[in-house]
């Protein structure tokens, strides 16, 4: 089967929003008096904010954590958010080749669409699945399967691209090809342990991967 759709994680994959996320978490941790351990926090990036809040703040203070996070995140969003270099051009090229494009993110609906509209990605996407659109989240396959169902695409005709091991696990569980980007939150060595179908050092690597995958696919 040919690859007909490329699905992408958002933060740390298409959007260079990690500075915003880290800035926001540090503000919240400081205001709530939660000890900051960088490696521990980074490992949770890619999970829904509800899970992160419960883990670090506990059930009784989770809602406070979420409200503080959303306040700082939305206030500083435009100041800290950018696309990674070449991202817009890469997506435009894939669309010109006839591929369907989609976002599958653990970010909530409001935050995700703020980023998509601010960066101009909204006009390029055929489907967007956020944390508010499914009950079960990455690393489970449900968000990816929902996107594929909306597009009526078989998992074997799709590739999912992300920057965390949650993305790799979700894609593998859904039955898609999986690619990890090396410029996001997760070190290359950790991504390799989850055995994705490939690792990308640049968007040029994605173009090469798709050309090779579709060369003799029919």
From TrEMBL:
One of its GO terms (biological process) is DNA repair. SUPFAM superfamilies: HAD-like. InterPro entries: HAD-like_hydrolase_sf, HAD-like_sf, HAD-SF_hydro_IA, HAD_2, HAD_sf, PGP-like_dom2. Its EC number is 3.6.1.1. GO terms for molecular function: inorganic diphosphate phosphatase activity; phosphoglycolate phosphatase activity. Keywords: Hydrolase. Signal peptide: none annotated. One of its GO terms (cellular component) is cytosol. NCBIfam families: HAD-SF-IA-v1, HAD-SF-IA-v3. This is HAD-superfamily hydrolase, subfamily IA, variant 3.
């Amino acid at each position: 089967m040919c690859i007909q759709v490329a699905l992408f994680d958002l933060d740390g994959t298409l959007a260079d929003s990690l500075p915003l996320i880290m800035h926001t978490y540090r503000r919240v941790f400081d205001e709530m008096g939660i000890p900051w351990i960088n490696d521990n926090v980074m490992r949770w990036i890619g999970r829904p904010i509800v899970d992160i809040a419960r883990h670090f703040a506990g059930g009784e203070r989770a809602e406070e954590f979420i409200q503080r996070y959303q306040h700082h995140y939305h206030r500083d969003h435009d100041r800290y958010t950018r696309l990674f270099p070449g991202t817009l051009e890469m997506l435009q090229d894939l669309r010109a080749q006839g591929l369907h494009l989609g976002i599958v993110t653990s970010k909530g609906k409001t935050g995700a669409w703020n980023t998509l509209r601010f960066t101009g990605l909204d006009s390029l996407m055929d489907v967007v699945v956020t944390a508010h659109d499914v009950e079960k989240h990455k690393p489970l396959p449900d968000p990816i399967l929902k996107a594929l169902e909306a597009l009526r695409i078989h998992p074997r005709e799709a590739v999912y691209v992300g920057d965390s091991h949650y993305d790799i696990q979700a894609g593998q569980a859904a039955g898609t090809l999986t690619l990890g980007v090396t410029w996001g939150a997760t070190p290359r060595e950790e991504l390799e342990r989850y055995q994705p179908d490939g690792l990308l050092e640049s968007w040029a690597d994605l173009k090469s991967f798709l050309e090779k995958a579709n060369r003799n696919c029919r």
